[in-house]
Amino acid sequence: LRLVRVTRLVRVLRLIGELRTLVISIFGALRHLSWAIILILLLMYVVGVYLTQLVLEHRLENEDDHSKSMQELAFFYGTLGDTVLSIYKGVTGGIDWGEVLQPLRSQVSNAITPFFMLYIAFVVLCMLNVVTGVFV
Questions:
Q1: Cα 58 to Cα 77, 82, 97, 134, distances in angstroms
Q2: What is the percentage of the chain residues whose pLDDT exceeds 90?
Q3: Per-residue pLDDT, 128
């Protein structure tokens, strides 16, 4: 029964040339999309390692501090996975990037702000626009 439905779909695709062209184009763009995703993930990984190392050093120096901002720091940057997820959310709008930056500013250093803003600007304005340009 499912095989018959798939065969009908293939016939419909042959009849509608424009739809067929769109489907072929989407499958052709998947290779470029996968490389773009790998590039963005690699950049997020490198920034994530840097931020996680900074936070880990700060948390080791202040082990006895159990304030709310230190808990936020551990929540956003406690592990490499947490850090990458936090900066991914900051770039894609899952969370405001100011909320992700605030624990770094209040606990680690204000000097991290230009680095973080440059990272957000680079990913949003450069990387994502290049990815959009590849597919449009």
A1: 11, 16, 21, 40
A2: 19
A3: 79
List C-alpha distances in Å: 18 to 8, 22, 99.
Answer: 17, 6, 45
The token pair at 51 is 């931020």
Q: Which of 18-22, 34-38, 52-56, 72-76 has the lowest mean pLDDT?
A: 18-22
Please tell me the distance from the alpha carbon of residue 90 to that of residue 86, in angstroms, as a whole number. Answer: 6
Q: Is the dihedral of CA 95, 98, 101, 103 positive or negative?
A: negative
CB atoms within 10 A of CB 85: 16
Buried b (16+ CB within 10 A) or exposed e, 101-128: bebbeebbeeebeebbeebbeebeeebe
